[in-house]
Amino acid sequence: MRSKKKEGRFFAVAQLLRFFKRSSAQASHPSKGALPYKRDFDRFPVEFQVGVWCQDKDGKAVYDEAELHDVSGNGAMFMTLFPERYYEGQALKLTIFLSGPRDVRAAIRTEGSVVRILHAKDGHKHAGRQKTGIAVHLNKPFEFERMSGHLEEGI
Questions:
Q1: CB contact at 8 A, 56 and 62
Q2: Domains in the chain: how many in total?
Q3: In a domain, 140, yes or no
Q4: What is the pLDDT of residue 104?
Q5: What is the SS3 assignment for 7?
Q6: Cα separation of 131 and 75, whole Å?
Q7: Which label site among 61, 65, 71, 139 has the fewest CB atoms less than 10 Å from its CB?
Q8: Whole-number pLDDT of residue 84
Q9: Which among 82, 76, 64, 80 is positioned nearest to 133, based on CA atoms?
Q10: Hey, what's the torsion of the CAs at 118, 124, 126, 132, to 10 degrees?
Q11: What dihedral do alpha carbons 48, 53, 57, 60 form, nearest 10°?
Q12: Sign of CA dihedral 94, 97, 69, 109
């Protein structure tokens, strides 16, 4: 019998794999007559830790540990406690840390750029601080990799 924690991990990874299968199908059959501002892909809610490497407006290297909020076929949104580190058009390197047993840890690495900064309403707080959504356009296909070592290894 599996523990609830293991079942939750299995569900989260299974949910992400279903997203990839569904997104590929949507990408190969785009909707006809879609307006330019309409989303081409559905959003799928997820909860994974994401490591974000970037440079701030002053060119200083920055690392942030955030929470992945949702993904779509060509984008994602993560929630951060440090919105001042981000700006529209900013290049990001992202590592999505997948849940799993310690001996089989895996991550997804990709690159993207900030398209919107969405200040959350009530409900997205951590330790009294308001979380902010960072919407990202993904510029590079996902690369799956088995992990070893510390989370802040970078890309």
A1: yes
A2: 1
A3: yes
A4: 75
A5: helix
A6: 19
A7: 61
A8: 93
A9: 80
A10: 0
A11: 140
A12: positive
Examine residue 10 and state whether it is found in any structural domain, yes or no.
Answer: yes
Full domain range(s) for residue 64: 4-28+41-149
Cα(127)–Cα(150) distance, integer angstroms: 24
Question: Under 8 Å CB-to-CB from 45, ≥6 apart: which residues?
Answer: 69, 70
Number of Cβ within 10 Å of residue 79's Cβ equals 21
pLDDT of the residue at 152? 45
pLDDT confidence of residue 7: 52
125 strand-pairing partners? 130
Q: Give the torsion sign (CA, 88, 89, 93, 99).
A: positive
Three-state secondary structure of 72-129: ECCEEEEEECCHHHCCCCCEEEEEEEECCCHHHCEEEEEEEEEEEEEECCCCCEECCE
Report if residue 100 sits inside a domain: yes
- In the chain (155 residues long), the average pLDDT of successive 10-residue segments reads 50 57 45 47 90 96 96 92 95 92 84 91 63 94 78 46
pLDDT at 46: 92
Of 63, 79, 70, residue with least CA distance to 125: 79
Query: Residue 154 falls within a domain, yes or no?
Result: no
